[in-house]
User: What shape does this take?
Amino acid sequence: MNAPIRRISVLIAALFTALLVAATVVQFAQVKTLGSMAANKRTLLDNYSRERGSIIVGGQPIAKSVPVDDQYRFLRTYPQGGLYSQVTGFYSYQVGAPYGLEHASDDLLSGDSDTLFVRRATDLLTGRRTAGATLELTIDPKAQKAADDALGGSKGAVVALDPKTGAILAMVSHPQYDPNPISSHDLTKAANAWEKLSSDPAKPYLNRTINQLYPPGSTFKVVTAAAALESGLLSDENSEVPGPAVLDLPLTSATLPNENRRPCGPNDKTTLIRALEISCNTAFGSLGLELGGEQLRAQAAKFGFGDSLTIPMRVSTSTVPADLNAPQAAQSAIGQYEVKSTPLQMAMVAAGIANQGRVMTPYLIDSVRSANLDIIESTPDPVELSQATSPETASTLTTMMVSVVDNGSGVRAAIPGVEVAGKTGTAQHDPKKPPHAWFISFAPAGDPQVAVAVVVEDGGVTGSEVGGGRVAAPIAKAVMQAVLQ
Amino acid sequence: MTTTVEQLMPRTRRNAELLLLILAIVIVLLAWVTTDLNRNGTVPANIIPVAGGFTVLALAVHLVLRWKAAYADPVLLPIVTVLNGLGLVMIHRLDLARGKLGTDGDAYRQIIWTALAVALAVAVIIVLRDHRLLRRYTYVSMAVGFALLLLPLVPGLGQTINGSQIWISLGPLNFQPGEFAKIALAIFFAGYLVQTRDVLSLAGKRVLGFTFPRGRDLGPILVAWLLAVLILVFQKDLGSALLFFGLFVAMLYVATERVSWIAIGLLLFGLAVAFALSAFTHFQKRVELWLDPFSPDNLERSNQLANGLWGMASGGLTGTGLGAGRPWLTSFAESDFIFSSLGEELGLFGSVGIIVLYLIFCERGIRTALGVRDGFGKLLAVGLTFSVAFQLFIVIGGVTRVIPLTGLTTPFMSLGGSSLLANWVIVALLLRISDQARRPMPEMPVGIASDDPAPAEVTQVVRMS
Assistant: This one.
């Protein structure tokens, strides 16, 4: 019987060989394929149970992972609740991380970034799990708080920049939401929170400072003035410009009226500085006609319109349309027609003028630190985005904007003892709704520390420039004060 | 024969066994401590009594072998100790993940079952002085085997768990009688085939180079087949059916040395499977799951196979480390999928290690079959070994997607008392037979031969040549 026993042993060896091959296929050859399957809960849990880096503002975490005793190991928490909700986004086992820094800086926060490569390699040797990097933001918590308080219950956005560096000092978008419930490990709770957030018509998840395009309205007149000065059409703030009650537009029966239906000065004429102070539509409309669409567009582009920026979140591209005809150019010159801008873009306009015509590339991340606080990327050197105007033009525009606050529509932005430059705006967007109220500003005019753009949705009053001045200017003032304190 | 040399220097290898056994215990204890360190950061509080108890159990078997079966194979016991221990560690690890602590834990029950199983094995080694005594009970074994197999079908006793009716419940205990049927049937097949092998192997017609049996000699294989079909139809248990029928065909082949039996067996079983596939959606689903475990529809239906594969893949080469993976995500992680669970945390190296341990176990079983001098012992040893090997192939092949998944336990490792008891009895029988196989000839107790009721035994030894 020994011969068949030996043959049975060969059969057994064959069966075991099949098992060894199968185990090798599953645990070696197919590891990547199996690991990357969407339904593989282990891969998902692996990502979610890693110690994710914190996001820090002014030394305090606005997002951090705290160890918990469940299968996810770390719970993502947002100690400030809604205040930074659009800056951080959320990190949810249910939904993922579709918004904010949690999305844009995921590779750094999770520890997967190539800049952490050396650390990952040493962690592999020591068997430690690579922890994510910590992000320190440029945001000034006082400015953030001031912007949030000042905006109050209104829908809208406030963004503040350091004009000299492009560092973002405040980034507030209303309405806000609490990212904590969506990031909860109670999956039902998380699903309900996400359902509520995603179906909210006010879109609280949207970061209005960078991803909502508004018509900039009269704040865009600063760009038009810059184009007129840069092109040599006008020499300085005292140059004379037309200012009729109503501007006839060529090629069409439509007209461009002043809000108050009155001329901006005697004999239907005024000066450039006066036109900006009182936000004279016909003056800037006629400048638009004289400059033409392409010159407006070119000047806007120098301020950053048309650029795709990442801060590192993707910023929606602000636009001045190409191939404008004369009436469209006139409308565009006062920030209407199809001109669209994010609040950040208009803050960059203010910051560019403040910084002698140099627009700095905006950024949100000040430094990146590894889990044991080694600096991986230190504060970036300021990067110039473009020279939007000459220093002389910037100086002229500053004089004009100071005058807007001192003598014109932006008086509510005035800070005692500080020279503030600003421009109001009231932007039509829907005939059935009140216009958006805008304000852009910077201070101190002599040595600018902060540039701000404020939008209050539906916050203006139709037919009046008072919206921007009354509603938006005080918000800008509060933010500037918070930074300057 | 060179028995004279062996007679002068009988090598029991018991000291080698002791060394290996200590190594086995160290491996298991290290695995346990690692698990608790990874999970809780502490050494288990009850390490002294539990580790001590485990060591005492293993050493008890060792001492009984020194006393009652000094020439038994020295490798079997250490291997089984490692396998049983690693199974316990994984069950304990899953307890920790599920918060089932102390006496609520599955590990607690499994430890008790291990103790009972070891006691049973020791009893078998002590009581059964010679495996040939079992031949007396050939037909008793048949009756017991068949009864055990069909027991789950008795109304009120049978329990359907996971679609297969292979359990019986006795009060609070659920029992898989099939595990014991395996042993009873191996004894029956061995006793029966030793008697009838002449007829089954010599008579017949030659067709195409194969000698095919006469029609009337087909009786036994048809009975076995019918039994397998009954299990298939009424218990919906492809795994058990395959195991029993495979066991019978393999032993038939060893007894008769005729390849034609294997051909007939494959044909018959193929027919049964084809029938089962066309008649029962239960089997169709299993095949679909096997072919594409990752399609959304199939994941909806049952994600355990996919989860087991994902778990093993997440372990990769080196594994997550004991206590650091997520084996509990797979359903039946402590029973059908305990191999996946261990693969996840010990990696491919661990999986290969475990498979190789089983391979060595089977190799020692085969060596025992080759070495033992009587035909009954040969058949019994090869039958028991093959049953372990084949069962392992069916269950691990199922979780690694070599074949469709069918519910069988992983010998020595899976959670479950019946499986542990039965497999420890198999080890005891193999140890007993291997003692006969390795014992120097003249030392063989002469009294046994006269004890033996079957006079055929004597002629058989002659026939072996």
Remarks:
- Chain A is about 40% helix and 20% strand.
- Chain A has a mean pLDDT of 88.
